[in-house]
Write a structure and sequence with these properties.
single chain, alpha/beta
Length: 593
């Protein structure tokens, strides 16, 4: 099966910059009232900032030039009050936008998490979980400043630039043109910089994802690493990935940091030419001292938003890849979905039928692997079917197809006569219990772990399920019984104890169809005998599929399917298959001997 490991960069389809911005801004719709209030605050602050240079010009030409101290003081007090209001409104809008941004981030992360829950096993099989975590945590966090600044920077600075340009051209179009002479140079510089910057930030995100994937895998397998004394090797791998991550960041920043020098350079040229034209070629009296001073402020007000917009654009370019990775994941369509006219599967009896079923992993790719070919069988309600055969023969694939964790390419699978593709997924899976060799124990109490199988179960149902699999006695011997706190993966419990808790979690749901995939392989022989007694009592008249390599554990099965070469090579009761002296007989004798 094709897997994107931590050593490989993820392939992410690039989206248009404006498409990303529009999609990000669409999340503001849910906060439209607050956004409107923020825009009103912006309108007022922009108005104040545009009026300030005019007040300076008026003060110089009318009050200072005419030595009107009283009028100058009155204007000064008015300017002070105006700018205090400006500062307060800026603080209010920044606070509100920060609040909105955090809410949107929470919404995006929740949306992303809920979407991932709908994706099929095929998606999770193809990439390390660390790379998925990198998108949910790191990439989503990168969107915060873009969202906030899209409103607090993009809109007010764009309006400010327009307002400044209008005022400058109205006041003196010659000085205005002189001030803007460096704009073409700026546009060329920014185009070149962003082209290389965007590409390098894409690479950095991929290297970050690779590093996260390795760290997650290494921590998850720390017991294996330490038991094999492989710390030196894993450190070497970590150093290589960390170095790639660091170097990619440096390369991205090296290009990114060219934005501001480019803006400052153009700002300096524009200012120099404006003063040169104003003083030398236009001169007085057409250009008053107040007008030249106000133009000096306006050119600053023009280039300052340009600098801010460049910073925002810089930020957008650096975080564009993060947004694209988030949206790509959100746009990933689940492989397993309900049909348009899917029906609710009623309470089932447990009849299962495979009709000419074929299944291939990674169909259409270079790693295509055909596992099942033209498989057909029928199972009656209440039957116990054991699946045996060599590793990779397709035993687990068969039970995964019954739960519809994958969709078949050819044939049909029926439960009680219902085609699995025509029923709602939740109505199918809620009537099935799946128990594997490596069952995950969640952080929380034993009670919470067992009742995870049926959230509305009663205390009596929980205890009955634990007793059925002989877990009750060892649980009650623990410090707090069912309220004993367990760490992630059940550290501190024996493998057998973890297996019994997972068994109780499956049993409490009272499934109509039970799947046991090597479910008792981690339990000692004495405990297994007790569990088998509990299973026999609890699952009477329930359809069961049991995958087992220890053939001694399936002697009570109604039928055994020997899986090999893409299909069922033998089937029958244990006694019948032993009498045939075929594939099953050879497997059994190999274990006995």
């Amino acid at each position: 099966m094709a897997v994107n490991s931590f050593r490989e960069d993820e392939q992410v389809e690039s989206m248009g910059k404006w498409k990303v911005i529009v999609r990000l801004l669409s999340y503001l719709r849910d906060h439209i009232k607050t956004v409107i209030f923020v825009l009103i605050c912006m309108g007022i602050t922009i108005g104040i900032s545009l009026v300030n240079p005019l007040l300076i010009e008026y003060a110089i030409d009318e009050f200072i030039g005419k030595e009107n101290i009283k009028g100058l003081l009155a204007l000064g007090i008015f300017c002070m009050l105006l700018n205090v209001a400006y500062v307060l409104l800026v603080k209010v809008r920044m606070y509100l936008m920060a609040k909105i941004s955090n809410k949107i981030l929470l919404s995006v992360r929740q949306e992303l998490y809920e979407h991932i829950q709908k994706l099929s096993f095929k998606f999770f099989d193809s990439r390390p979980s660390g790379k998925i975590l990198s998108r949910i945590i790191g990439d989503v966090n990168s969107l915060k400043d873009v969202l906030s600044n899209a409103v607090t920077t993009l809109i007010p600075d764009f309006i400010t630039i327009i307002g400044v340009l209008v005022i400058m051209f109205v006041k003196n179009w010659k000085l205005a043109l002189a001030s803007l002479c460096a704009i073409p140079l700026l546009m060329v510089g920014m185009f070149i910089i962003q082209k290389f910057s965007h590409e390098r930030w894409h690479i950095h995100r991929k290297k970050s994802s690779n590093l996260n994937a390795f760290v997650h895998e290494d921590i998850a397998g720390i017991r294996v690493v330490q038991s094999l004394c492989a710390q030196v090797e894993t450190k070497k791998t970590f150093d290589e990935l960390a170095k790639e991550h660091r170097n990619s960041f440096i390369r991205a920043c090296a290009v990114n940091d060219m934005f501001f020098p480019c803006v400052d350079f153009c700002w300096g040229i524009g200012s120099m030419i404006m003063y040169l034209i104003g003083v030398k070629y236009i001169g007085f009296p057409e250009i008053s001292i107040g007008l030249l001073a106000s133009f000096g402020m306006y050119i600053g007000m023009f280039w300052d938003p340009i600098s801010n917009l460049s910073s925002f654009y810089n930020q957008l370019v650096s975080n564009m890849s993060a947004a694209e990775r988030v949206f790509e994941l959100l746009d990933t369509e689940p492989d397993i979905v309900d049909e348009t006219n899917a029906v609710e599967l009623p309470e089932i009896k447990g009849a299962v039928e495979f009709k000419n079923v074929s299944f291939t992993y990674d169909e259409g790719t270079t790693s295509e692997t055909k596992v099942l070919e033209n498989v057909s069988f029928t199972v009656k309600p209440g039957e116990t079917i054991a699946l045996v055969g060599p590793t990779g023969a397709g035993k687990t694939t068969i039970v995964n197809l019954i739960s519809r964790f994958y969709d078949i390419q050819e044939g049909n699978i029926y439960i009680d006569g219902y085609d699995l593709k025509e029923v709602a997924l939740h109505s199918l899976r809620q009537q099935m219990g799946v128990m594997t060799q490596d069952n995950f124990i969640f952080h929380g109490t034993i009670r919470e772990n067992i009742m995870y199988g049926k959230l509305d179960a009663t205390e009596e149902e929980m205890i009955a399920a634990a007793k059925a699999v002989n877990a009750h006695d060892f649980i009650m011997k623990m410090e707090k019984g069912y309220d004993t706190e367990l760490s992630e993966r059940g550290a501190g419990l024996s493998i057998g104890q973890r297996q019994l808790i997972a068994f109780a979690r499956t049993m409490i749901s009272m499934p109509k169809i039970l799947i046991l995939d090597e479910a008792t392989s981690s339990i000692d022989t004495h405990t297994e005998r007790m569990v088998q007694e509990g299973i026999a009592a609890l699952l009477a008249d329930r359809t069961s599929f049991v995958i087992a390599h220890r053939l001694s554990t399936i002697q009570n099965a109604d039928r055994i399917f020997v899986i090999d070469d893409g299909g069922i090579v033998e089937s029958g009761s244990p006694a019948e298959l032993m009498a045939l002296k075929g594939a099953y007989y050879r497997l059994y004798m190999a274990q006995v001997v």
